Amino acid sequence: MERLTHKRANEIKSGYWSPNKKDELVQRLAEYENTGMEPECMKKNEWIPVAEKLPETADYVLVSFKNFSLPAIGRYEVNDEGDGAWYLQGCDDGDTCCSAGLFVNAWMPLPEAYKAVN
Question: 61 φ, ψ to 5°?
Answer without folding.
Answer: -140, 170
